[in-house]
Specification:
Elements: H1 2-11, H2 21-44, H3 47-53, E1 77-80, E2 85-88, E3 97-106, H4 109-117, H5 119-131, H6 141-163, E4 170-178
Antiparallel strand pairs: 1-3, 2-3, 3-4
Helix pairs in contact: 5-6
């Protein structure tokens, strides 16, 4: 009987061990090397890096930040004029409100920085413009596009006065609610 107990103990499989530490370290090192290689690959493929390594000059920009060397415009950059504009509109028959989110588009970080610097005056002029509207005038697309053009002119006027250049190319309503 003692022999049967010994043979039963010998037939039991050995307890399974976890993944060897060496294998985990090798996989970890391969992952780090792959991530570093990918980062290097994408960093060397950027236009700024290509221009620097191949001796090319970065294209000069005009007053709007558009690239002028080959005539192609620079990338559009947007700036939200936060917080949203909320005004009482000029309706005489009832109390109505206009709430809109506005973003401006330029092709230069310098222009967007000028917008930030002169934000109080820009917001003031836009608030005055929005509060002059009547609900019926901005109910349809044509009315909103007229208001959009007038708002763009207000922003460009402030920038022209302060910097000598209109800078901002477009103004967008990203939400527009009248009530």
């Amino acid at each position: 009987m003692a022999e049967k107990a010994k043979s039963a103990d010998q037939e039991k499989p050995a307890p399974k061990r976890g993944v060897p530490l060496l294998l985990v370290l090798v996989i970890l090192l391969l992952g780090i090397a792959g991530a570093g290689g990918g980062a290097w690959y994408f960093a060397t493929r950027s236009p700024a890096h290509a221009a620097a390594t191949h001796g090319a000059e970065a294209p000069a920009a005009d007053e709007h930040g558009a690239a002028s060397k080959d005539g192609a415009p620079g990338a559009a950059q947007y700036l939200a004029l936060d917080p949203a504009f909320v005004v009482n509109v000029a309706d005489e028959d009832a109390q109505h409100y206009l709430q809109t989110d506005v973003q401006v588009m330029a092709r230069s970080a310098e222009v967007l920085e000028a917008v930030k610097i002169h934000m109080p005056r820009i917001r003031n002029n836009l608030l005055l413009l929005f509060s002059q509207q009547k609900t019926a005038d901005v109910r349809d697309r044509a009315g909103r596009e007229r208001l959009q053009a007038a708002a763009l002119k207000e922003v460009q006027d402030v920038l022209t006065t302060e910097t000598g250049k209109p800078g901002v190319e477009a103004l967008y309503f990203t939400s527009f609610v009248t009530q």
